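A favour, since you know our structure tokens better than I do. Would you make up a two-line entry for one protein for me to read? Write everything out right here, beneath this request.
=====
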Amino acid sequence: MTGQTSTPRGLNSELLALPQLREAITAGQITTVMLALVDVQGRLKGKAFDAVYFLRHFVDSPGEGEMCAYVLATDIEMAPLTGVELAGWQTGFGDFRVLPDLASARLLPWRPGTALVFAAAVTPDGTDPVQVAPTAMLAQQINLLAEAGLSVKAGLEAEFVLYRGTLAQAAGQGFQGLTPVTADNRDYSLDHPAGLVRYLQRLTEMLRRAGQPVEAVKTESAPGQVEITFPYGDPVEAARGHLLLKHAARAVGERMRLLPTFMAAPATGIGSGLHLHLSLWDDADAPQMADPDRPGELSETGQHAIAGLLEALPVLAPLWAPTVNSYKRFRRNSFAPTRYTWGRDNRTCAVRVVGHGPGLHVEVRLAGADANPYLALAASVAAMRHGIETRLAPPEPVKGNSYRTTAGSPLPATLREAADLFESSTLPGTLLGEDVVQHYASLARAELAAHDSRVTDVELQRGFAQT
């Protein structure tokens, strides 16, 4: 495995400036460039170009790529969505253009000789971003927040469960009866089996060499569960880092016969989250969540932001909890929230205020591991902006066990309930645009339809011999 993931000698192993990219391609150290778009599920989709062609077509000339627009209009199994304007049988499944962000170029050390470049989807005439693209949605919310003289910084905590074996073996078992890499609760443990130690070391090394250093790694309470924390900073880079983590986690696991899953609830009683740490800053890069005159207290801006999160995120749930499985994570005494509440350093709440002094910020604990980080961040930034612009006041913080309180409305029990609220409320359209609401409502309905028509193992277990 060592030879398969080594960095070419003399080549910077982090982000590649344009001269470095050109030199590495010319020298034959990079032979393939993957041009990657982020789809609605939060996966990397695109094409692998010959590196010399990429250099000539995209770097030496202002070239543009093309992809079928359905890349942003499918369900999780790549079946085309119905009733969406972007792409479908009624449009003939035409292309949109993709523009490379050359500043995002980086090596993928888990794929020898390969660089990755993120891309943005634009309309066929090349003039406007595709508004329903996750990257465009986050960019729009960041720009709208900037108009109010504010910026957001983000840090993501990503959880996933690691199983023994390969994807082919798991599929052959119907993804049932899998063996986690650890058998018990190893939360905060520093004693891990040798195979897990090697996997985590290799994973963090691969990410560092791809320009995405990890802040910390810890094992969690569920068997085989791992949490990766990334450094705080630019929200777009935070989202990109999460996608790189998923890509690297699977590639490293494949070589070591270990299988990660980013399902929100991969087994009954197990939940994996994607926690968003968010703070607001002014044009002078001064923190705005804490009150400078009252140490440890929230500023008015911070209070408005929290109120916005509690009012808007309930009607934006399909963006941060996009699958039927997402809602099986929300249960009592699970460290996942069950009501829209907030509290100070309180992990039973949906929004946790944490940090000290000027580092005071919020942790939004709603999204699961299956969330698209661009959409979860876009929804959260839009919600904070809503609270600030309308000067909302938050309710009283919850002290103690939020699972026992009646404060705050309950989270939706199902995706169907969340989708109904998403479509019936006027706020999502106001914050994100009606085209976005229509597109992601169609995605939620497709997810529901796929489940409604299938017989599950639970139905067979409960009903086969008893009816």
Q: What stands out?
A: The mean pLDDT is 93. The chain has two domains: 3-130, 141-448. The chain has 13 helices and 14 strands.
